[in-house]
Every structure is written in structure tokens, then in C-alpha cells.
Amino acid sequence: MSSLSHDLYPREIRMLRAIQDVLKKYSIHETTRSGARRRTFRVTGGTRPYDVTVREDWSESPACTCPDFLNRASRQNRGYCKHIIAVLFLYEELKCQLLELFL
Q1: Residue 78's closest CA among 60, 61, 56?
Q2: Burial class of residue 69, CB neighbours in 10 A (0-12, 13-18, 19+)
Q3: Mean pLDDT, consecutive 10-residue segments, the chain of 103 residues?
Q4: How does DSSP assign 35-80, residue by residue?
Q5: Three-state SS at 30
Q6: 81 class by beta-carbon count within 10 Å (0-12 exposed, 13-18 middle, 19+ buried)
Q7: Rounded to whole angstroms, how far apart are CA atoms 81 and 85?
Q8: What is the pLDDT of residue 11?
Q9: Checking phi first, is residue 52 left (phi over 0); if not, alpha (psi -120 to 50) or beta?
Q10: 89 FRET partner, CA 20 to 30 A, in 5, 14, 81, 95?
């Protein structure tokens, strides 16, 4: 396997898991929106509920409270766990931030 395909494999898996698992089985609800364009979403339906925080102005990278965000995702996917990917994919105005995953 080439280094390029090896680098993309974890990203592809997370994208598929976000779309197939999280969007189909979990519930995602926006819980807060601050004046600083910071939005927080609660993702429920898995082992535990997790919170995803996104800045509409891209001034900070998205964050999640799940263990994967703190461990594997930060090493393999620029910090994008399946919960973050699902939130960004679900909300049209946030989809453009998925580009960061591939840059």
C-alpha cells in the first residue's frame, strides 16, 4: 500500500462511519450558539452522549468530547472524529469545513 493510500485510509473509514453510523443511528441536536459564532451540538445514540463544538468562522478547529477525538483522530485525521464529521456533513453551512480533513 502506498503512503498516500495509507494516509487516506483512516479518513475514508471515518467518513463512511460518520455517514453510515452516526447520521443514521444517532441524534444530533444543536444545544448552544454563542455570539462569537461558536456552536455546540449534542450527539446521542451511541455508548455515551458527546458534545461537538464548531466555530463558524473557522478560528478554531472543531472539537469533540469523545475518546477518539483525544486519541486516534488527532494523529490520523487532523482531529476529526466521526461525530465531528457527522455534524459538519449534516449542517449545510458547516460542510465546507470538511475540506480541512483532506488538506
Answers
A1: 61
A2: buried
A3: 49 73 87 84 94 91 91 72 90 88 68
A4: TTSEEEEEEESSSS-EEEEEETT-SS--EE-SHHHHTHHHHHSTT-
A5: strand
A6: buried
A7: 6
A8: 66
A9: beta
A10: 5
Give the C-alpha separation, 100 to 103, whole Å. Answer: 5
Question: Which residue ranges make up each domain of the chain?
Answer: 3-102
Q: The C-alpha cell of 39 is what?
A: 456552536
Q: Residue 6 corresponds to which amino acid?
A: H
Length of the chain as a residue count: 103
In three-state secondary structure terms, 28 is: strand
Instruction: State the pTM of this model.
Output: 0.79
Q: What single letter denotes the amino acid at residue 39?
A: R
Q: Can you state the angle between helices 82-90 and 3-17, rounded to 10 degrees?
A: 60
